[in-house]
Amino acid sequence: MAGTLLLVEDEPSVGDLVRGYVSRHGYGVVWVRSGEEALVELDRHPVRLVILDVGLPGMDGFDVCRAIRARSHVPILMLTARDDEPDRVVGLEVGADDYVTKPFSPRELVARIKAILRRTEQHHQEDVLTLADVTVNRGTHDVTVAGEPVELTAKEFDLLACFLANPNSLLSRELLLDRVWGIEYPGGTRTVDVHVAQLRRKLGRPELIRTLRGAGYKAVAP
Question: Do residues 99 and 80 make contact, with C-beta atoms less than 8 angstroms apart?
């Protein structure tokens, strides 16, 4: 799973569309129809991002956004049928991270979700990651093995950082594809295998990234 999204949408057709599409991309979805329910469910689940409709019964989306911001830094993507610039500005001013106007493309929605998550979660990541004698410095984009620098491509660097940020955790190919590439990649999960092989060769530490047959990969200290 790529994490849990909280969907706050009172229109059944829109809710069904969003839940169905984002679920196919590996996200769990908690769908509620009102702002009041959203605030309750936010405390019950490890929500990674909120998809919030503006035109809700009772509390509107702006009020819900303000209430969420008073208690959480969770990213918020607002949905609305309003295309007026003042409404978009208000949404961003009360704490939304992005704004999508109905009707929208589900594929664009997922791309925006992934972009928001990459942008917001990067601020909470440690700059220096270490496992065994391999070190990744996100701030300087440097990689060393036993103190010696190693040259990696941008995607190899991101993939290694993802492994080192989640040591001893099973990471499926689908999850790695989502976290590192962030979009539907035409090469599919095969590109993950290719990049893992390249990492093992360049690092000279093939035992650092363990293959779990049929499941994915795990970074472990040799």
Answer: yes
